[in-house]
Design a protein that fits this description.
One of its GO terms (cellular component) is basement membrane. It is found in: Secreted, Extracellular space, Extracellular matrix, Basement membrane. InterPro entries: 6-blade_b-propeller_TolB-like, Cueball_EGF_LRP_Nidogen, EGF, EGF-type_Asp/Asn_hydroxyl_site, G2_nidogen/fibulin_G2F, GFP, Growth_fac_rcpt_cys_sf, LDLR_classB_rpt. By secondary structure, the chain is mostly beta strands. Helix content is 7%, strand content 37%. The strands form 18 sheets. The protein has an eleven-stranded mixed barrel. Strands 1, 6, 7, 8, 9, 10, 17 and 18 form an eight-stranded antiparallel β-sheet that branches. Strands 2-3-4-5-13-16 form a six-stranded antiparallel β-sheet. Among the domains are: 238 residues, no CATH class; 222 residues, Green Fluorescent Protein, CATH 2.40.155.10; 33 residues, no CATH class; 229 residues, TolB, C-terminal domain (Neuraminidase, 6 Propeller). Strand 11 and strand 12 form a beta hairpin. Helix 1 runs parallel beside helix 2.
Amino acid sequence: MLAASSRSGAAWTRALLLQLLLAGPGGCLSRQELFPFGPGHGDLELEAGDDRVSPALELSWALRFYDKSDINSVYVTTNGIIAMSEPPAKESHPGLFPPTFGTIAPFLADLDTTDGLGKVYYREDLSPSVTRLAAECVRRGFPEVSFQPRSVVVVTWESMAPYQGPSRDPAQEGKRNTFQAVLASSDSSSYAIFLYPEDGLQFHTTFSKKDENQVPAVVAFSQGLVGILWKSDGAYNIFANDRESIENLAKSSNSGQQGVWVFEIGSPVTASGVVPADVNLGPDDGAVYDDEEDEDYDLATTRLGLEDAGTTFFPYGNPRRGDANTYNHPGVLSPRQAATERSSGSPTERTRSFQLLAEKFPQQHAQVIDVDEVEETGVVFSYNTDSRQTCANNRHQCSVHAECRDFATGFCCSCVAGYTGNGRQCVAEGSPQRVNGKVKGRIFVGTSQVPIAFENTDLHSYVVMNHGRSYTAISTIPETLGYSLLPLAPIGGIIGWMFAVEQDGFRNGFSITGGEFTRQAEVTFVGHPGKLVMKQRFSGIDEHGHLTIDTELEGRVPQIPFGASVHIEPYTELYHYSSSVITSSSTREYTVTEPGRDGAAPSHTYTYQWRQTITFQECVHDDSRPALPSTQQLSVDSVFVLYNQEERILRYALSNSIGPVRDGSPDALQNPCYIGNHGCDSNAACRPGPGTQFTCECSIGFRGDGRACYEVEKTRCQLEQEHILGAAGLVDPQQPRPPGLFVPECDEHGHYVPTQCHGSTGYCWCVDRDGREVEGTRTRPGMRPPCLSTVAPPIHQGPSVPTAVIPLPPGTHLLFAQTGKIERLPLEGSNMKKTEAKAFLHVPAKVIIGLAFDCVDKMVYWTDISEPSIGRASLHGGEPTTIVRQDLGSPEGIALDHLGRNIFWTDSHLDRIEVAKLDGSLRRVLFETDLVNPRGIVTDSMRGNLYWTDWNRDNPKIETSYMDGTNRRILVQDDLGLPNGLTFDAFSSQLCWVDAGTNRAECLNPSQPGRRKVLEGLQYPFAVTSYGKNLYYTDWKTNSVVAVDLAISKEMDTFHPHKQTRLYGITTALSQCPQGHNYCSVNNGGCTHLCLATPGSRTCRCPDNTLGVDCIERK
């Protein structure tokens, strides 16, 4: 630490400060303009060498970083980073970003100071001259901030050389980089200043020890691992990570001085992301989300009957405004963007607001709206048919409660079971919903020539979904207008249509649109001049889990006297559907009862005509989706309207159902689910049955008999989600997340999705059932690892499914696994007899992955990763049995030697390959080294060879050995991605595999050089088997079995099982065994225990768990 500078140092600093103050945006930063550094200024010097880390630099003033305010020491490394904690030894050289520790990286690259090739200086400086210089740099980047640092950390990397690796790059000889990072801290905030002098960055890539090639440097910040019970990547911001961006560091700036970059790294606004400076921003460019406190909803009233109209209390009080919340999250601008965008004068974005601004409807005269006139500009979202628009890079556009599927022309989202919506937006079936929004208007009342104008008026609605009842309140409506708006129940009626009770085969508005649409309506009052035009935009679900709506009213309405009441009879309305457009029209009557005078209360009945057009965007890529009925009928069984003069609140309540066009009331329409007298819990969905029968089913997240539902305990994954979102100030999983924040994805049952991805970087990895990352599974952007779920789906209540095997008819069959069951698909020649596919075995509590078939005893063997275990069952029928359940991690691939009567399997958790007898006895580990993610495994029984795949993300390979484990060698190593499935055809001696990384199927003859690409462009192949001229593989993207003709390299047929869930292993159940023998075929090869075949011989081996003299090993 340096308490004060020397006199000459202070003079130098004053000169530098003057230069910075006088510098214009066009001037490059010279080396003399860096902060003072070197031994003469009190710097410590990092030990020379490669991948060096300094001792802890203890700070006299705590550094703030992201959401932490208590960082009291930092570490400096050779490789261009300042660490918030000591980096682990295994992360001493650059690897995948983000690292596990907090990081500030002005130039993260593999740098080298061996043999005096460069120097790294560092210190904490409390001198007034240096703190003043840091304050000026921050002020230039954040002119609106008053910042007086107490402490400044100065780190300088001077004349650093790149690590060259085993083969030196002549182009980098003599190239040196000089750059600086300055961390300034006050009582309440910390800032980072990166300085890149002119000609200070002479190289932009270095040799990576991990990738063994040249990789660009990275400029970034990372929070490191966060969490107490659960560790996961915290927030991080990557600022530059490609050659062009790195080159622009010295040429561009976000603070007005070229080569100087300023970031706010620790303050209340950086809990979820570093904020970069942007001097081009004006004071009003930030975005503020103004959120009102939730209304208190009184659910005491559950009945909505006309007989209660005078006394029904609606679930709204006067709205109360809470404190406005501001959500500012960084939108990081790279140096490349800065160099291009700012030159054109366009403003850059500093913050991202979670509030989607509502479209402002232009003022216009009332007009008749025809379908032909509807413009597509009102579409809230669109499905892009560009070839790049696939689930791989658009999964975030689907709801977290939806699945994404790719089709030939694009992707579609669809809500999972238990949820309803359009896939983009999904809510739990039967769950109450809230709708919030604003209303503005300019309305003439009666014959008045002066309009009544209002805006920013609150609208709130509460929906009891399983009754189809909507309660809508609009606050602060002037008395001069409130009574006259009573007939306009359609203002709230659109919400009733969205959540109307659905009759079989019919869909309400939310199922169709997901609450994302625009609505234009026109009301004509018969016998009264003028019209009223209504425009509404629904923008889906906001960060609080509420639907959002903006409404504008303009035109003229008849005057209704003060104190009058309005009664509207139940009515029906026809909704007509065409592509992305819905229209409806109706004629309605309403009765106005004026306040009583002289004991009489005169009543008058009036009529208005109603027309509306709704535009939305549907997904056109899925041709298999059931088409909407061209016409549906909305039945509004009870309507209640009220204007509260004291509170100035307008209320509408409606009870709605949607179904077929009808005259009268057929018996089917008297089902309690449709008429609302079912008695199901408010957190349950009513499921209609035949006639008047029905069942109540608790919504997702609740348990019970449906009459009474209670909230279920949250899972580990859900708790971790809440913990991370809460720490970042986010309140809903569907809320947009700031850059760099990782939130684990949970499935519909609350379990960790086995493949977790970081949206900001594209990195993906596998996790176990507790959410822990499986080592060696993290893949680079653009590639998803083939992760397996270890959790069996919950068993739904209902008739139990027998676990006994359903015997197979004669012939050859494909057997494939689909989570908790095995299905059979008969073959006729090489053709799949798809209409005869049936379940072979139900084991719903298991997750079956690998399959193997014993053609001698007609037995199928499988691996189960949920227990974990290995089991088997006879094709002739009977109960399945478990043969191995001890000392297993994640058994995946399984193979069988039908001649030697042994099974082999891979275990990707224990990283080993084992062998045992067919009954699971006499286990022996064959390999437990140089395995990372072993999966597919097959045998060549007649030749005594074993083959397996390892989809190790860093070094994928296909290996082979003899069955006794000797003569192990790599068979294929080049041009592999994620080799999953493997099959060996005994008749042609072809070894074939499918690769989910290269999206190819390939084959080779192990005894001959060369390999053949059979087919490219596969979606996401998992497992493969062969029979005759065909390969058959399971595909995770399409959830199908695909047949490929090996001779002509063409897909011939595809089979989609009835249940569209992920398919795993596949094998061929041969009607008879291939001809041949090996040296273990007769009398166990003369071995006392394990007989393991080799080419032309056999080896007798003892199991690992057997001691004594009764086992003899010999060759």
